[in-house]
Amino acid sequence: MRLTFALLVARLAGWASHSLLGKSGETISGRVLLILCPNAISKLAAGRKVILVSATNGKTSTTRALAGFMATAGSVTTSKSGSNLPRGVANALMTKSEYAVLEVDELHLPAVAKATNPEAILLLNLTRDQLHRMHEVKRVADRWREMAASSNATFIADVDDPFVNYVISSAKNSVRVSFGGAAGRHPDGAVCPSCGSYLDWHGGLYKCVCGLNNHYSDKQFEASSAALRNEVLANATAERFGVPWHEVDVASLERKVSKKFINADCAIRLTKNPASWREALAGITGEKVILILNAREVDGIDTSWLWDIDFSSLRGKHVVVTGERGIDLAYRLHCEGVIAELVADFNAAAAKFAGPVEVLAAYTAFFELVG
Amino acid sequence: MSIRIVRIHNELLGTYGDRGNADVLAFRAGLAGVKAHIVDVSYRDELPDDGDIYLLGGAEDAAQVLSCKALKGFDFTSRVVLAVCAGFQILGNSYFAGGVKQEGLGVIDMETIPGSSRFVGDIKIYSDVVNVELTGFENHGGQTNLAGGITPLGRVITGSGNGAGGVDGAVVGNVFGTYLHGPVLARNPEFADLLLERALGRELSRVNDPLADQYAAWRRAVIK
C-alpha cells in the first residue's frame, strides 16, 4: 500500500519536473520514491532477475551493452546513463520487467546488492578515482569483499585486476575471467590487497605468496583495450542467462561522442581518473587535441592525480587546454614539455580548430558538451 | 653542476600524485641552469647514498608499512628530504596503519595517532620557513603530534594539517614533512626553489616561469 502510494507520488513528481520545469524528471522520481518508501528498491526488485554492474571505469557503457544483450532474453529495465546512486536504481526499477540491469556506484554497491538480491554482479575494475570521496582503493575493495562473502549472486569478474580478484575470492559463486594480463601492471597494485605483501608483476601477471594470482582463471580471452575487455565481460555475464554471444560497436563502449562545435568536428571522450586518461591518450590518433579539466564533486575535487599520467605522447601536437581547473593541467603539461595553450572556455578552444579534433573531457564537462 | 633527485618507492608511496614533486624539482632546476636527474628507486632496489634530494609520498596503509620497513637503517637526518603525508608519518617515532601502532624511522621527534575523523580537503598554511603561503590538498586519517621544540612547516590558515596545534608538517635541518599534496611543489614553486637551494648549498639564480607563478597565486587566492 505504502509502495503503491509512493510510486504514484514519485511518478507525479517526475511528470511535474519534466513537463513544468523541463527537466528529465528521473532523479526526482527516484528521490521521492525512496523518501516515501525507503525499502522501495528491495520491494521493486523482488521477483525479477537483477544484474548489477560496478567498476571505477566503464560502468555506464558496459551496463548499456549488457542491457542490450539481455533484451534478447526478455524484457529489461536499466539505469539511465550514469544514474548509479540508489535514487537512480529506484527510478530504473519503477518500470516493470523480467530483468533489471543496473549500474551501481562503487560505494553504494553493497547496500544495493543487499536490497536487490541479484542473480549476477559484474565487476570490471577498481582503480584510483575521486579519492576525496573513496579515500583509498583498498577501502572500497574491503567493502566489496564483505558484500561478496554474504551474497548468493554469481560474480563475473576480471581477475587481472588484483583488487577485483581479492573481492571475489570470498564469493560463493564466481566466474573468474582473465585476459592473460593484457591490461598490463595494475597502476595501484604494488601491494597485495589480500595480505599486504609486495606484489611482483611480470607484465600483467601477478602471483602473491598468499596465493592471490591471475595465472589461473575460469575463462581466458584476448582483448587489447578496456572497451574490448568490457565487451567480453558483458557477454560472459549474459551467457549465464543463456544469451548467445553478441558483438557491439566499440566506440559506444569507449563512450565516444561526435559533435560539431563552430568548425571543429569533435570526437569527445570521457576522462575522469588516471586509468581513463591513459586509455583515452592511447587512443589519440590525430594532431589536434582539446583537454578539459574540471574539479567539481563528481570530477574529484583534488587534481593531484594529473601527475600520475604520462602525457608525453602529446608532445608536438596542437593542444588547447580549458576547464575550471585547466591551469592545473596546463602546468602539468608544461613540466612534461608539452606545449599547450590555456583558454578561458570550451568555445574559445573549439574556435582554434577546423576539421577533426579529439576532445578529452572531465566528467562534468563531458555531459555539458554532449547534453 | 647537477643534482640527483631520488624518488623513493613511487609504486608504494604514489597514491596522491606526489611523484610530481620530482618532476617539478627537475623542471625548475633546468630553468635555473642546473642539470637534474631523477632516480626512481623501487621497493626491491637499494636506496642510493649519493642523492641530493630524497622524496617520499603519500600511500595507503599496507604500502606505507612495507616502505617504512624497507627504509629502516637509512640515514635521512643529514640529507635534503621532502616527505608528504604517509611518507611524513613514517619519519616520526611511530604511526598507525591498519589500526595497529607501527614503529617509525625516528628522523623527526613526533608521533602520529588516528585522528578524530579523516582530514580531506583544500589546505592553506603560512610557512615562516619558506616565507610564503603554501597551498595543497590533504587526505589523511592521522593526527601528528610534534614533540616540544620541533618546528612545524607552517601555521594552518585553512584545513587541518597535522590535526593538532593548528600547524602542518615539521622541519628538522633539511628534512621537510607536510600533509600537502597537489603535488605541493607544483602549487608552491618557492618551496621547490628552497629545496633546490638547500641541495645545492647556494642561492638559485632567479627562475622565470610565469605559468608556475600564476598557478601558485591563483590557488592562494581561491583557498580562503
> Could you tell me the strand content of chain A as a percent range?
15-25%
CATH architecture of chain B: 3-Layer(aba) Sandwich
CATH overall fold name of chain B: Rossmann fold
CATH class of chain B: Alpha Beta
Q: Quickly count the helices of chain A.
A: 15
Domains of chain A (count): 3
Gyration radius of chain A (Cα, Å) is: 21 Å
For the sheet with most strands of chain B, the description reads:
6 strands, mixed
CATH-defined fold name of the largest domain in chain A:
UDP-N-acetylmuramoyl-L-alanine:D-glutamate ligase
- Unreliably modeled segments of chain B: none
Mean pLDDT of chain A: 93
Q: In one word, what is the shape of chain B?
A: globular
What is the end-to-end distance of chain A? 38 Å
Sketch the major β-sheet of chain A.
Answer: 7 strands, parallel
- Our Rg estimate of chain B from Cα atoms comes to 16 Å
- Estimate percent helicity of chain A: 25-40%
User: What are the segments of chain A in which pLDDT stays under 50 over at least 5 consecutive residues?
Assistant: none
The helical percent of chain B reads: 25-40%
